[in-house]
């Protein structure tokens, strides 16, 4: 028996905004798994903003993607054949072999998932890296403490929606910014106290200050640019900024917008700290358990935007940068 | 008996670079000190970059100076008359009644100094706020740890010169940047491993990377602008930036230069933290004791640039922004 898996390869490195010409669909034949290997059929894959950085040929915290090779990224799949006693057909696994329909891999390269009553794709979103990112950024990096007023940019995105809800569960006043009426309505639905539709706000800084006249204590940064300026101006003394991402700047070809308000970090004694979730994977088991409880008790929910089929994975990726995803952007593969 | 004290008042708020027209010299008569008061003759006063911010009418961590009133700032003086048993004529005191030749004040508003074998003006420099700023920024804010490579901007200034020497005493590789050959020579003299004369360096980022091919772990920020960009690019993962000041930006009338490289804080997981020394005054006694030991054993020295007479205090202040001070900028009053 052999299977054919379709996959998305990097055809050329994007300059600025990626487009269809930077990617190609290819097919590979999967032989039966070798000794110690498993064969996995992917059910879902994720597209994430950080992948844009890996498409550039620059040294970063993850090595760049190689032209002519399949892209990589998070995926959840089902074991279809196994030559390892720890895994059996039907097991749900999480891997970094996304951007393809299936694969063979050493059993050690896949991680068996305990479903905790959650749907499989949740492990690419609320119960996966985006959820842990929200948790780590808020609790550990920003060191959330009682009474903090929390400002979240990209609040209706994969990470932002979880940040908002964890902050609400912990009793905080939350200001969430997102682009467009649909996202704004969703944020109200999940209990965000002050929703800013930044596309409709003539002045973002004024909008934040109107929502928090005494200023903000925590800023969860997903967007950069004007959002960061607003947060710097609205920050109270000793505010903490968890720098998770700056999606507005990822396709910049001129080095990105300059941040003018950073001098305020001195006088207000602000702390700005960047982080990447893979440095905090040790917190995953505790987080997933806590999250499953919040989901079971109806305290936490999420939204997904789904594209269907591996051939549409690049489109799903493009939509991230156009802000066309509400909640987690996913590709359903089978 | 009464004395006349000359003082410098704010005549108008500077726009951009301050000039002589923003200040005026005035005289006030000092009556004998009232009950519970002391009369102090100032020996030295300090001018510091942070005072520029107080000349603007904006809310900050210290209230703005008022037009028509004497400026304030650090001063060291000698008690000439006292109606408080805790202070007697001849005592050396530290106060915030700078920018004037003498004053009367409640005894509680002056702080008696233990000389520790140091000259009086040291308490406005190495053994005062600038020294404590260096110590706090390096040890507490940047959390200096073994093996760190330290980059200091404004390295030949009041704070920078102490940062460099404390880092050297603690065994670190130090890169110091300053403007001009005289400052560069001084930095070599105090043991800075890699001296960058930024006025002579065609590309500051390349100069830092040449000095530290594997990157920097700590950046002590006094300057801002291009220096901050260089530090962001040269930073190793998990580097810590102690944001003490950004003197290159204090007179900007357009919001200051934009910082383009801040996105690197995410992928490299950098921590940028602003601080002001007055939040850390509790560390002063321990610091002064440690410093006095370093001075006594010849491990730490400093330079001063001195203007003479209260009438020249504004000039001393202007020189800070032109980079015309080597080490601590002081005004000798008597």
Walk me through this protein's architecture.
- Two copies of one chain form a homodimer.
- Chain A is α/β, with parallel strands linked by helices.
- Chain A has two domains: 3-125 and 302-332, Quinone Oxidoreductase, Chain A, domain 1 (Alpha-Beta Complex); 130-278, NAD(P)-binding Rossmann-like Domain (Rossmann fold, 3-Layer(aba) Sandwich), CATH 3.40.50.720.
- Helix content of chain A is 24%, strand content 26%.
- Chain A contains nine helices and 15 strands.
- Chain A has helices spanning 51-54, 129-141, 160-169, 181-189, 204-211, 226-234, 264-267, 284-296, 313-322, and strands spanning 3-10, 23-30, 37-46, 75-82, 92-95, 102-106, 111-112, 149-152, 173-178, 194-197, 216-221, 235-243, 271-274, 304-308, 328-332.
- In chain A, strands 3, 4, 5, 6, 7, 14 and 15 form a seven-stranded mixed sheet that branches.
- In chain A, helix 2 (129-141) crosses helix 3 (160-169) and helix 5 runs parallel beside helix 6 (226-234).
- Chain A starts with a strand and ends with a strand.
- Chain A binds chain B through residues 53, 60-61, 224, 228, 237, 243-246, 249, 255-276, 279, and chain B through 53, 60-61, 224, 228, 237, 243-246, 249, 255-276, 279.
Search tags:
homodimer; 334 residues; alpha/beta; Quinone Oxidoreductase, Chain A, domain 1; Rossmann fold; 2 domains; 7-stranded mixed sheet; 6-stranded parallel sheet; 9 helices; 15 strands; 26% strand
Spatial separation of the terminal alpha carbons of chain A: 19 Å
What is the CATH C-level name of the largest domain in chain A? Alpha Beta
SS elements, strand count of chain A:
15
Q: Biggest interface, which chains?
A: A-B, 34 and 34 residues
Instruction: Tell me the radius of gyration of chain A.
Output: 20 Å
Structural class of chain A: alpha/beta
Domains counted in the coordinates of chain A: how many? 2
Question: What composes the largest sheet of chain A?
Answer: 7 strands, mixed
* Oligomeric state of shown chains: homodimer
CATH architecture annotation name of the largest domain in chain A:
Alpha-Beta Complex
The rough form of chain A would be described as globular
**What fold name stands as the CATH topology of the largest domain in chain A?**
Quinone Oxidoreductase, Chain A, domain 1
Query: How many H/I helices of chain A?
Result: 9
CATH superfamily of the largest domain in chain A: Medium-chain alcohol dehydrogenases, catalytic domain
How much β-strand is present in the residues of chain A? 25-35%
Uncertain segments of chain A: none
Q: In sequence order, what are the helices and strands of chain A, one letter per element?
A: EEEHEEEEHEHEHEHEHEHEHEHE
Helix content of chain A: 10-25%
Q: Estimate the mean pLDDT confidence of chain A.
A: 95
